[in-house]
Amino acid sequence: MAHIVKLRMLLFSALGPALAVLLLFLFAGYAILGPRGLLAWGDYSRQLHNAQAELAVVKADRNRLKNRVDLLDPRRTDPDMADELIRRELGLNHPDEVVVPLN
């Protein structure tokens, strides 16, 4: 009977540290395998690379559009740009046309 009491006291005294170690393993596993853990870091890095590539494409498109808007400024209209827009809108351009710059 004394052995049972000693065993029970030993189990109760080990319960606290066992729960602490279990909780520590739980947090460590979540830090490694969780949705924001170390294994997800590679996925975030890939997503960042893809987003930066898409941002570069969007910036290039924005710069192209900004250039076209600047060419349409009513105070200083570019004659070549006006000619291009008029021919495109009126359907007067042909696929076999060759543009020869004056300069």
From TrEMBL:
Domain of life assignment: Bacteria
Name under which the protein is recorded: Septum formation initiator family protein
InterPro entries listed in its UniProt record: FtsL/DivIC
